[in-house]
Amino acid sequence: MKLEKLSIDGKKDTIEVLDKIFSAKVNSKLVSSVLYKTNANYKGRHAKTKQQNEVSGPTSKIYAQKGTGGARHASRKALKFMRKKELVEQDTLVEKRLFL
User: Fold this and answer.
1) Closest CA to 77 of 63, 57, 61, 62
2) Kind and range of the H or E element at 35?
3) pTM of the prediction?
């Protein structure tokens, strides 16, 4: 059997191929199981680390974990510290409104 082949340059050539290759029976169970297995093994890569400009606020520890006598804290971005900041901002806004 002769097949036409198109090269990258755009030239057409012919290739001689054995008839056994295309006349063989297709094992549909085998094909479906291989496709199923390859699709099951595919893992979409969704992990992403933030760039420096995407991080909001400092990520350093507030103080040393040991020796301070206080509780362990990681950074100022914890809700415990954010709430205090928001409350202080709200109080100052209320005070400004009273004086206006």
Assistant:
1) 57
2) helix 28-41
3) 0.31
